[in-house]
Amino acid sequence: LLLRWRRRRALWRKVAEAQERQELSLVRMEAAARRFREQHPSVNVVSILSLPLPELSKKLRDGSLPPDHVFYAYVGKALQIATETNCITEFLQESETQLRKAKLMEKQGLLYGVPVSIKDSIDCQGHDSTLGFIKNLNKPAAEDSVVVQVLKRQGAIPFVKTNVPQSLISYDCKNLIFGQTRNPLLYTRTPGGSSGGEGALVGGGGSILGIGTDVGGSLRFPAAFCGICAIKPTGNRLSKRGIMAGVIGQKAVAAAVGPLAKDVESLALCLRALLSEDMFSLDSTVPPLPFNEEVYSSTKPLRIGYYETDFFTMPSPAMRRAVRETKQLLEEAGHTLVPFELTNVDYVIFNYCVRGMFADGGSSFVKKFKGEMEKGGMGMFFWLAKAPHWLKTVLSWIAKPFVRMPFIGFVSFYSTVDEVWSLHHEIEDFCHQFIAQWKKLNLDVMLCPMLGPALGIGYPAKLSVAVSYTMLYNALDFPAGVVPVTLVTDEDEEELKGYKGYYQDWWDRTLAKAFRGSVGMPVAVQCVALPWQEELCLRFMKEVETL
């Protein structure tokens, strides 16, 4: 007992030190912003913050806007949003040195002088990538991740790291070290996750461009919940070297790194900058596919598949309306909309995604929590993961009549090597069947629902099943982006009173509660393309955004 007490005390000391560093970061940001304001009282910060990224980067490159004006404008705004939402974990002090060097740069990259926020799990030299784990504190990265290196070579200035949920396997944003991040639009709501700090900071206007990751919706949830745009590219379109994963080594569900921003044009500019020779030479495993300008700028009418529901997670009234209204606008603009029928989504989620990620029965995931003081609301999961196989089977059988899946069974998904190989083969087959259905309808892109509006804080931990709309495209490894298209209305709220769900079980009842009280909150749609067609995906997103 004494040993355990000492261990816990040592952990709390590490947490307290990390929290002090976080507080000191905000103090330094405040001092830097105040010093700049005193030295440059005539700088119009509001006009700088109102510029969209393409316009801002143009002004930075042509010299009509000094980089330090932009940098300190965003440092000040980021500090405000961090104070309101608790989204920043660390100010990257070397960014001020980089700013001074940027002024001397001869070759100005596409993102010259642009301040960029970086998700906690993406390595920045000299800084921790904690994933919300105490054990990862005081373990600074030896070098920048490839994405951060390329951003810097393109003239961008990474200036803060942002909060994540413990382990990243969550679409909320809370950990024991840095606490809960709140949605900038409504503080009682989650900003989404796992790139939740990015969603809150970009959504609140404290960063003009953020970089996050996505293994089940971790870019798309924060963007949709905070009313901004994001794109999850094909898994290997951008380098993942130097990026920490929630579950290491699994190949069933493709993770991706991608940008978040206020508009689609900003996402396109970021991908143009990243898909450069710099990236291809730093990571030779990334296919050397530069940004295809012709595809992105095309005005050819599109043939678009669409669906309003996956028949697993019943959409909220606002989700359904978002798809219907977007479909109508696209048709009026001259595009062809074709119904697409989704089948067996429950099988895909539980047998490909969950089973694929936890093929070892969850043991490697559970190991990550060893020695931690908090299990991120996963106490039942850990107990089950450690329970003997016969007990899991019995509990699964007992639970079957009451829940939509063998819940207990998903932590008894321990697989032998040949079963894992068989699973990977099955996922490949599913992907080819999905593409065959897509090509039979002669589709260019797909319009899909996106979970929304933002759920109340704490609800995502109870509603892991609601990742069905996003995680499907990680299993398929298709590029998928989100664009906000509407706000929840009084009529949506009234209609929600009749929400029953497809299974009318505990999850459906909980989801109905989680959606309530959301009038005025943003709702997005998902835009999807075939693998490696990020430019077409962005072109479609731009069309949706414009309409």
Automatic annotation (TrEMBL):
As for family, the record states: Belongs to the amidase family.
**Would the keyword Lipid metabolism turn up in this protein's UniProt record?**
yes
User: GO biological process annotations for this chain's record?
Assistant: fatty acid catabolic process
Molecular functions (GO terms): amidase activity; fatty acid amide hydrolase activity
Q: Which residues bind substrate?
A: 168, 194, 215-218
List the catalytic activities from the record: (11Z)-eicosenamide + H2O = (11Z)-eicosenoate + NH4(+); N-(15Z-tetracosenoyl)-ethanolamine + H2O = (15Z)-tetracosenoate + ethanolamine; N-(15Z-tetracosenoyl)-taurine + H2O = (15Z)-tetracosenoate + taurine; (9Z,12Z)-octadecadienamide + H2O = (9Z,12Z)-octadecadienoate + NH4(+)
- UniProt domain Amidase: residue ranges: 73-538
Q: Pfam families in the record, alphabetically?
A: Amidase
For this protein, the Enzyme Commission number is: 3.5.1.99
- Per its record, how is this protein called by name? Fatty-acid amide hydrolase 1
Q: Which UniProt keyword terms apply here? A: Hydrolase, Lipid degradation, Lipid metabolism, Phosphoprotein
User: Superkingdom of this entry's organism?
Assistant: Eukaryota
InterPro entries, alphabetized: Amidase_CS (IPR020556), Amidase_dom (IPR023631), AS_sf (IPR036928), Endocannabinoid_amidase (IPR052096)
Active site as annotated: 119, 194, 218
